[in-house]
């Protein structure tokens, strides 16, 4: 399965995110996440590519992606993923 997200506000407005999940068996999964932000909004675009990667990529996106993955894992383990992500 997969989850598609399009950000409509904030530092990453316009960014498309795809989470994909591949079952390996015995309750194990490979989870992949991809981010596409072709035209960063103001003020993100004034940071330049290196600062954007550091601040937005590792800071904001890394933090939010980690929280999201922990929530998905919790809901899947509780058997409630289809209605509460």
Summarize the structure.
By secondary structure, the chain is an alpha+beta fold. Helix content is 41%, strand content 28%. The protein has helices at 48-78, 81-84; strands at 2-6, 16-25, 28-36.
| H-E order | EEEHH
Largest sheet features: 3 strands, antiparallel
Task: Output the strand order for the largest sheet.
Answer: 1-2-3
Strand content: 25-35%
Helix content: 40-55%
Poorly predicted runs: none
Q: pLDDT average, as an integer?
A: 85
Number of strands: 3
* Structural class by secondary-structure content: alpha+beta
Q: Tell me the overall shape.
A: elongated
- The radius of gyration computed from the alpha-carbon positions, rounded to a whole number of angstroms, is 15 Å
Number of helices: 2
First-last Cα distance: 13 Å
General description of the model:
The chain has two helices and three strands. The protein is an alpha+beta fold and 85 residues long. A hairpin with a 2-residue loop joins strand 2 (16-25) and strand 3 (28-36). The protein is elongated and about 45 Å long. The model has no long low-confidence stretch (mean pLDDT 85). It has helices spanning 48-78, 81-84, and strands at residues 2-6, 16-25, 28-36. 41% of the residues lie in helices and 28% in strands. Strands 1-2-3 form a three-stranded antiparallel beta sheet, with no helix packed on it.
Notable features of this structure?
single chain, 85 residues, alpha+beta, 3-stranded antiparallel beta sheet, 3 strands, 28% strand, elongated
List the helices and strands and how they pair.
Blueprint: E1 2-6, E2 16-25, E3 28-36, H1 48-78, H2 81-84
């Amino acid at each position: 399965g997969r989850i598609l997200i399009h950000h409509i506000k904030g530092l990453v407005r316009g960014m498309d995110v795809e989470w994909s999940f591949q079952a390996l068996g015995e309750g194990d999964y490979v989870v992949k996440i991809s981010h596409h932000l072709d035209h960063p909004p103001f003020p993100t675009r004034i940071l330049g590519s290196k600062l954007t990667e550091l601040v937005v990529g590792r800071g904001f996106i890394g933090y939010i992606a980690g929280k999201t993955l922990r929530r998905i894992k919790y809901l899947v383990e509780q058997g409630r993923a289809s209605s509460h992500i």
